[in-house]
Amino acid sequence: MSGKYxxxxxxxxxxxxxxxxxxNRSTKELGKALGLDVVxxxxxxxxxxxxxKNVDPKLQTYLSARNLSIAEAMGFDTVMAPCNxxxxxxxxxxxxxxxxxxxxxxTDQLSRKAGHETYKAGKVETIHAxxxxxxxxxxxxLKARVRNSLKGLKIANYYGCMYTRPRHIFPEKDRGPGxxxxxxxxxxxDLLAAAGAENVEYPLKTACCGGAHTLSDSDTSTKLVLNLxxxxxxxxxxxxATECPTCHTGLEMHQVRAEKVFGRKTTVxxxxxxxxxxxxxxxxxxxVGVPENFSASSxxxxxxxxx
Amino acid sequence: xxxxxSMSLNDIAARLDAMLAAPDTALxxxxxxxxxxxxxxxxxxxxxxxxxxxxxxxxxxxxxxxLLALHRQGARGEPSFNACRETCRELVYHHNLVRLEPAHTDxxxxxxxxxxxxxxxxxxxxxxxxxxxxxxxxxxxRPLRQHEASAQPVANV
Lengths: 307, 157
What we know:
Chain A is an alpha/beta fold.
């Protein structure tokens, strides 16, 4: 273990307190099993997701700046966000505060009005749960701790569209060996391979899941998800591993809807990467929230001696 | 390059479905032509998006491929369009894979995966077109009501 990121501030965000609770549970349990500490931000607020951003992007920047300010006030220089939307927005706020005077001005005004310190760019580093495990433990560290290898489990790693886009807000990516790639992300692949899984070559790992369409045009979302699922199956995957609660929920719900509305049944299972790693470390399926998933994977996991 | 006439997204979807349903032997026998067809269908999909925006699709190439130039053109002023950037690159990759080894034993599977990638592009663009009059599509979109936001300074919210 490098010691880096051994203790980080934790920003779960709204989704992990709702539909993504299994991700919240498995992230915390995985950290505990690996000897890593997470300290939840006190009185955190919504990151603004897509709703606030679409109405007033500078207000959205402030919302993320407030969370970063809380992390700084709690004495942390790193905040970890497992949700792609939260992660993306924190990174975007960091970029805007470093590069856009108007964003700085609005953030300062609102911070003073709200009665807290104005967050200044560069004080707190935002990382994803993938960065956290990859940098704090690494593949060798994981391998040494694996008790139930994921051997034989074929996994399509699905990163979604917000983990790598837009590229300019992720200056630490695309830095050569050891860094994450925005063209072809691989951190989740690396970690699951270290736990024994067989990753399949999945050509849609950063393709759109239609998440934003879910309410306004469900059929388009269902068709996009169905294509993700059938492509994963065509690649030979037993499981799609996810690292975003919105993508995860979309895949699960539209898998059901695809069968109901279009009569297209798919059998590939959907699990958070934290659940898979947790079970590889010997945690039970219940402990990492597998029964809370909509996608019923118990039979597959039992057959593989997991959970 | 295959000669693709002006087609609707539904026509393109039907062509992709036909390729996905074709027997292995048929795909293997015409692998290179099918790979070119996939690329041309991808270009046709992006042409539909550009035409809907009132633009003339470029004939330029990026990294040797018109598909990538069309994507770049389509993304201009439309950050959310980058959500299909890697889908376009994957389509080019599958085209190259088949073109480099048209006699490979796995060529039918490679073509089908390429067709699934093209189908994702077709679905994504279809979704974007559908909501074009209603708002933006993706989470990294430009603000929907930017003019309203600028009319009401945020500090006064």
